[in-house]
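fyi for ur records
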Amino acid sequence: MNENLKEKWHQHFLKFNESNLSIKEFCIKNDLIKSQFYYWKSRIPIRLAAPKKISKSNFLSFSEKAKKELITFKIGDHQISFSSLPDAIWMAKFIKEVQYGSSKA
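which gave:
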């Protein structure tokens, strides 16, 4: 393996980790080919950071209170607490209902 090329990609991965971009966005911005990114990623032992972007719809806050052992979700003006995590599908339906209201009128 060409050490200069390996070092070049290692530097790309370090830069990627600090970029807060998706792989696609990073490759476009840096004139890289996405398939080459994945090729070198599989050959260079470096841990890539997950994108740190925060969703634009910041309507859900989450807190876990150790004292009461409750998990509390706040969605807009609504709040609901659980003693353990609820089923993910049920929670998604609940959030959708609170956010968009009932479609059954």
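The first helix runs from residue 3 to 19. thats all i got for now
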